[in-house]
Every structure is written in structure tokens, then in C-alpha cells.
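The instructor's notes for this session suggest beginning with a concrete chain rather than abstract definitions. Hand out the sequence below and ask the class to guess, before any prediction is shown, which regions might be ordered.
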Amino acid sequence: TRGATPRFVYSTHVDTVPPHLPVREEDGIVYGRGACDTKGGILAMSAAGERLMADGLHDFGYLFVVGEEVDHQGAKAAPALGLQTERIILCEPTQNRVVSAQKGMIKLLLRAEGVAAHSAYPARGVSAVHRLLDALERLRAEPWPTHDVLGPTTSNVGVIAGGVAANVFAPSARAEVLIRTVSATQPLLDRIEALCGEHVSVDVPACNDPVFFDPPAGVETMTVAFNTDASYLNEIAPVWLVGPGDIEVAHSDHEHIELAELERGIDLYERLGRIALNP
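After discussion, reveal the predicted structure:
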């Protein structure tokens, strides 16, 4: 920042998901890891800030964090910086539409233990894989809440691993699950514990509730099914969540951003910055 109390800050995360994708430009489109999530947004925020400073406006700053793609550790640590500001303009790829609501999130690490034995003799062993699969099936079959604005609760079993061989009852197994939530977190956590039962342990590396925002007047809005650092940065100041690029190509092998959309993002970030400075 240029002062102790900027009126607003531009913010986003600088980490990306693997693997690395080499950068190339074709027909006005830039391809590469982070092109839209969110290196393109960083460029747009930087260019918007240059425009504001060229017009004599300096009462703003930048807050860049790490860990959004994993556990939000950067955003969780940010409130301890003591930053005082009135507004955070947070980038995620939303096709330059300001988000009115986002889903919450529960990230689960499930572990099951078993007893290794020859698989021909079920009385001699217990399969951790079977215990884990039973718990996962109960989680997937549960009628989770639906919201009029945010839609249904959804889940993804992103990682599952365990066992040593097909002819051995698995002594251990684990799974990583991400649930996109549309209701308060704690009742869901209580239900998850009950569904997993005594044979599957539940760890929660990260979770947060859905967020409802206050977009400024006169902008195009949308709701999103993904989760962001907004849950934690809201502790510092109210958030406007918006950015160039399409989240549906993020994390893919063809992640990209159109230069024309990037230009529109610069214009929008400049406009939002001026609104934040003159509410």
C-alpha cells in the first residue's frame, strides 16, 4: 500500500493447481496454467491500478495470498496483518460478472483401519477398503440440502487409496472428499460424523459457510458453485468477487483466457476501484 489505511485493496491468490502448462498465445487467446485462475486477474488488477494512479488516485493497495487451491492458509493468516480497509476487490474467474453468492465448502480426509489377512478366509480379516466404501456410499446417498439461490449440495470423491494386494484384506484406506455446501457447516459436519460411523475417522482440513455478497449497483451479477478466499477475507472488509476468465476451463489441460476479456477485466477493475473510492 501507499498508506496505512487504503480505501480498498485488490486481492487474489497466486498459487495454481498442478501440473505446469507451458504458455502460448494463439488467435488472441493465452493458454497456460493460471491463465484465468488467477494470473490473468493479477495482470488486470495491476493495469487497473496503473490507470487509477495515472489519474492521481493512490488510496488503494494489493493483497496477494497463497494456499487458496489447497487450504486457504494465506487468507486465513491475512487478518493478522492488521490491514484496515473499507473494501476488498477479490479476483476469481467469473467472466467479469460480480458474484452475489458463493457455495460453502467442506474438505474431508476419511481414514479406515482393517485387519490384514488372506482374502479367502473372511473370518480372519477386515477390509479397511470395504469400511471406507460403505461410509462413502452413505455420504453419497444422503439427501443433502438444496438452496433456492445456490442450488444443490454436491460432492466429489477426489482421492481414494488403500490396500496392498487383491488377495489381502486391506489393513488401511483413505479418501479425500470435497463437499460444496449451500447451508450452515456445523449441522453438516455432525451428520457426516454420524454417517461415517465408528470405523471411519473424519478429519476436516478446511471448511466454511456459503457467502452472500453486496454487489454495487449497475453491474452484471452471478452466483457461483465454487469456493474462494472470501470466507476469510470478509473478516478484514466486505468483498466484491469478480474477475476475467471462465472458471470452467480452470484446472484443465486447456486453461486459457481471451485477451479481449482481459481488457474488459481491466476496465471493470478500474470502474470498481473508482466506485470503492467514491461510494
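Then share the key points. Residues 116 and 171 are 5 Å apart (CA to CA). The longest helix spans residues 35-54.
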